[in-house]
Amino acid sequence: MQIFSPFPRCLLSWLVTVAACIALPAQAQFTDEVPFITSPDNVTLEMLDIAGVKRGDHVIDLGSGDGRIVILAARRFGATGLGVEIDPALVEKSRASARSAGVADKVEFLVQDLFKTDLAPASVVTLYLLPEFNLQLRPSILALKPGTRIVSHDWDMGDWKPDRTTVLPVPDKAVGREKSSKVHLWTVPARVEGLWCAAGLLRGATLRLTQKYQNFAGTLAWRNRSRELAGAISGAELRTPAGRHGELLLQASGEVLTIASAQGDLALAQNETFRRAKGDTCDA
Ligand SMILES: C[S@@+](CC[C@H](N)C(=O)[O-])C[C@H]1O[C@@H](n2cnc3c(N)ncnc32)[C@H](O)[C@@H]1O
Asked: Which residue of 115, 156, 171, 279 is surrounded by the most CB atoms within 10 Å?
């Protein structure tokens, strides 16, 4: 859509930037691209709550600001954590706050570019960045261990829809017109697209799956019969709704899919497994 304006485009974008800077309160300072704006206390707590953070979790906050998310994860939920922040002064502040909160042995803060951070050790990743940062991070997030929880304050992940979203009141919100914040949760789904070949009781059966983020569809073919499947992936679990054939629950673990529970004509196939095909058929 073309919008008519009496101003040249560059002047317009400069005016928007200046207006945004004037509108930001003293606590909001710009780095190169993402400003330092803290998540309010109620939002910080919800980010950890919605992800079900607990002892044993490792929380990585990308763009950790003053360290509040990681420090609360350790202090209140007993998790360990890493905060990655480009601004050295904020990292110093975070380390001091961690010492005051008595969690300096559980959390670490690094001056580091978030895009150069190894996310593999995380069981929970938290973000309060910008939409385009989330989209840039999406491929590396989708490559993480199935079951890793991702929480983003306000911004989504494009067409990867969140599993859950909550909305909280933030009466003195520093940015935007809405005086509320959204907290989105995603769970990294197992990567199951492709052909799977049955062993054991179901030998000869094939399972061909397609996948779009946390949704899958496919065909289970066995002894001249076939059944269409579709359902949702939550971490390592693939579940079809209880339809005509009853619910089917598959558990993904690396290159193996196990029937964790089944009803109807597959009820006896519990614990039977499929292996990912090496090529384009199950003949090999
Ligand atoms: C909106 S603040 C969020 C702070 C904190 N996570 C919270 O929710 O309260 C975003 C932070 O990301 C930091 N940041 C921006 N670009 C970064 C980058 N490339 N690598 C690491 N940190 C970055 C900014 O300095 C800022 O402190």
From this structure: 156
Judge if the beta carbon of residue 108 lies within 6 A of ligand 1: no
In angstroms, rounded to a whole number, what is the distance separating the alpha carbons of residues 100 and 272?
53
CA distance 202 to 197: 9
- CB of 67 closer than 6 angstroms to any ligand 1 atom: no
Q: What are phi and psi of 188, to 5 degrees?
A: -60, 120
Give the Cα separation of 69 and 39 in Å (integer): 8
The structure's pTM equals: 0.88
Token readout for 234 is 């939550």
- CATH 3.40.50.150 positions along the chain are 28-187
**Ligand 1 near 114 CB (within 6 A):** yes
Task: Determine the distance separating the centroid of ligand 1 and the alpha carbon of 31, expressed in angstroms.
Answer: 8
CA 196 to centroid of ligand 1, rounded, Å: 42
The residue whose CB lies within 8 Å of the most ligand 1 atoms, and thus the one to mutate among 36, 50, 112, is: 36
Q: What strands, in cross-sheet order, belong to the sheet with 180-187? A: 107-111, 80-85, 58-62, 124-127, 149-153, 180-187, 164-169
For ligand 1, atom 15: residue with the closest CA? 34
CA angle 115, 43, 40 (to 5 degrees): 90
- The model's pLDDT over 192-220, given as tens digits with 9 standing for 90+, comes to 999 999 989 999 999 999 999 999 999 99
